[in-house]
Amino acid sequence: MRRSFTLFSIVVHGVAIGSVLGAQALAVGALPTSRRALMFDNFQLVKLGDIDLPAPPQAAAHHESSSSAVALNAAPTMAPNAVTPETGRENEGSTGAVVDSVEQGAGSYLETVIGQGAPPAPPPPAPHPVPTTPIRLHSGMTPPVKKVDAAPVYPAIAQSARIEGVVILEAVIDAQGRVESARILRSIPLLDQAALDAVRQWRFSAARLNGDAVPVVMTVTVNFTLHER
After folding, report:
1. In a designed cystine with 195, which of 70, 94, 145, 167 is the match (CB 3.0 to 4.6 A)?
2. Residues 91, 73: contact at Cβ < 8 Å?
């Protein structure tokens, strides 16, 4: 059964294919024509002509003329007919009147000054005031130097108690180098009075500020040392 059906199917397909092929072979009609290549058969020559350029605007021409008038140092565009001697005032242009007025003003001022004589010289600077009250030593001053020394008298009670050390004092030295006064800054009670009596006998060279002798305040020390016998 299956084999009969296969043979029938083959026969049917063969008949269908044959019918299509026969119809194509028996078909009558005009054959298609091939495309024609593109060709330029008809063409015309074009005549080329010059185009006139537009005239420059009047504003630009005016700007160029004004610019050339202002630029005094610009190079000339045309050759001169002759060479003229230089006067030294070629580049002044419109500022010549201003320069002339300035020169005239300066000349009148000089004439006035010359007629009245030279202005007086400025006065010398005022001298620095010399301090009358004692000032502390600082940089720029010449400090006083001890000229006369007086050794302190060691108190007997301090020697018995074997007390020694350094007493620090603040002394006021006048413009002549004398000790006006002194006070204790660092105290050793049994040695303070002996230190004050010794310092009041000292003499110094005058301290100087800008070359002038001035009174000063300075710190001095008195050393007490026991010597072994």
Report:
1. 167
2. yes
